[in-house]
From TrEMBL:
Gene3D superfamilies: STAS domain (3.30.750.24). Residues 14-112 form the STAS domain. Signal peptide: none annotated. This is Anti-sigma-factor antagonist.
Amino acid sequence: MMGISLETSYYLKDNSVIIISLYNNIYDEFLPQLKELFSEFLIKNINNVILDLSKCLFMEKDIWEYFINLKKDLIHKKGDLVISGICGMVKNDYNLMELSHCIESFNNINDAFYNFGILTDIKSA
């Protein structure tokens, strides 16, 4: 896996929810980097996480297991971890492993924000 690196981006919404976007393929070798990234936010008491997987093409099993355990930790801190924009092979794996029982998935980031009580769009009737 020489030359392959973890690609992420993130932004903070309303000082309470961190949106972390994962790109391309997420291999088990990236686990230490992911743990370091998430620990930065946990230290700052940012306990609500949206994983934007709309640009993620593949994710290995150990990464999924890490996210399941991270969600459990966040729940103990009165937070949560949800997924947004899951598609393709990542969605297939999510469904095959029946991860909807562990981690809730939303079609888009606005729906995930709503889960955390953040209204982004006011729709007229």
